[in-house]
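In the design runs reported in the main text, the only information available to the sequence generator was the tokenized backbone. The following block is the verbatim input for one such run; it is reproduced so that readers can re-run the procedure and compare outputs position by position.
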């Protein structure tokens, strides 16, 4: 194991459970391969779908 000073992510405050869950969903599922309509019908809230395009 080699020590580095690389930072992969940082929280300036503890995020909400919804935000942590969304980060987990984005990490484990390839949502960019799905259409907006598919995501909506899967139950993903529109405000999260809109954030995927950023």
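Verbatim output:
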């Amino acid at each position: 194991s080699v020590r580095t000073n690389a930072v992969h992510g940082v929280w300036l405050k503890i995020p909400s459970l919804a935000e942590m869950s969304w980060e987990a969903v984005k990490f484990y599922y390839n949502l960019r391969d799905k259409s907006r309509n598919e995501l909506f019908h899967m139950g993903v809230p529109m405000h999260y779908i809109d954030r995927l395009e950023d």
